[in-house]
Amino acid sequence: MNTIIGRAAETEALHACLAAGRHVLLEGPVGVGKTALAKAVCASLGRPLFRVDGDGRYTEGKLVGYFDPPSVLKSGYQPEFFVSGPLVSAMRQGGVLFINELNRMPEGVQNVLLPALDEGRVQVPSLGEVRAAEGFALVATQNPSEFVATGALSEALLDRFELVVLAYQSEEEECRIVAQDARCSPCAALVEAAVALARATRHDPRVRRGASVRAALAIADIAARLDGDVLRAARLALPTRIELLDPTATPLDAVLDDLAKKAGVATRA
Ligand SMILES: Nc1ncnc2c1ncn2[C@@H]1O[C@H](COP(=O)(O)OP(=O)(O)OP(=O)(O)O)[C@@H](O)[C@H]1O
Ligand SMILES: [Mg+2]
After folding, report:
1. pTM for the structure as a whole
2. Which of 11, 79, 134, 239 has a Cα at 20 to 30 A from 126?
């Protein structure tokens, strides 16, 4: 796993909440580093880690677990036929359940978490009550509601979480992240140009949703294979990653040309 660059305060906050036996919601825009930070902190705790990715079709049965149908048909509901889902596994083993993009989960899945989070118990039909062992915690991530087309978390669920907000990192840290993650070792000038252009999209009044460090990484990787042409790489990498307020007013290519000039990005770094 790659090293986490910067994020000292957020790492400390996450550790403090988990050491205090709390559950944590990490919130921040797309690509800001929520998953990377959560994975790194969870791994450093040395507790078993169970990861689930938020999905509108995910079910309570998958999260909690289910009875193996052939075994039940043959011998009835015996505890040994229960196949634990990530929630029951994390509770029994005192592990961390990491739910990526919790706000994408259907309401039923979110509701199952309520008693697990504040009372450390969950009621499983035909099995009985499962109690959480010491160390059980939930770390979840969500994108801020203005960026996602999914529902917000219920008040009841939010009331069981501490919130750690992740904002974009400094330019210098973003350059180090891109240099660390890049596949084809781009030179420092190219990394700086890619990061400068991605960051410029975040403050432009014509742009509704700007580019993340993941976009800067894509620009740097592609530009390294296009003789350092950062603008050409950005034209490939950014259309899927940024959203203009009014695409009919100024086409994306024109906005990118303009931002490249303002960010001092030469077409060949
Ligand atoms: N502080 C950091 N140190 C090292 N790498 C980082 C850091 N922040 C982000 N990254 C890297 O940037 C990329 C995007 O980060 P990540 O996937 O964690 O973002 P995210 O907020 O979970 O995105 P999404 O909203 O799409 O789920 C990954 O390749 C990750 O490794
Ligand atoms: Mg993520």
Report:
1. 0.89
2. 134
Which of 213, 241, 242 to probe ligand 1 with, by most ligand atoms within 8 A of CB? 213
Ligand at minimal distance from the CA of 36 is: 1
Q: Tokens at residue 229, please? A: 């042409």
- Output DSSP code: residue 29: S
d(CA 162, CA 53): 20
Other residues' Cβ atoms within 10 Å of the Cβ of residue 124: 19
Task: Return the pLDDT at 144.
Answer: 79
CA atoms within 13 A on the CB side of 171: 13
| 36 phi, psi to nearest 5 deg | -60, -45
pLDDT of residue 150: 54
Residue 214 CA to residue 5 CA, distance in Å, equals: 14
Q: What tokens appear for 149 in the block?
A: 């087309």
32-57 pLDDT per residue, tens: 999 999 989 988 988 899 999 988 99
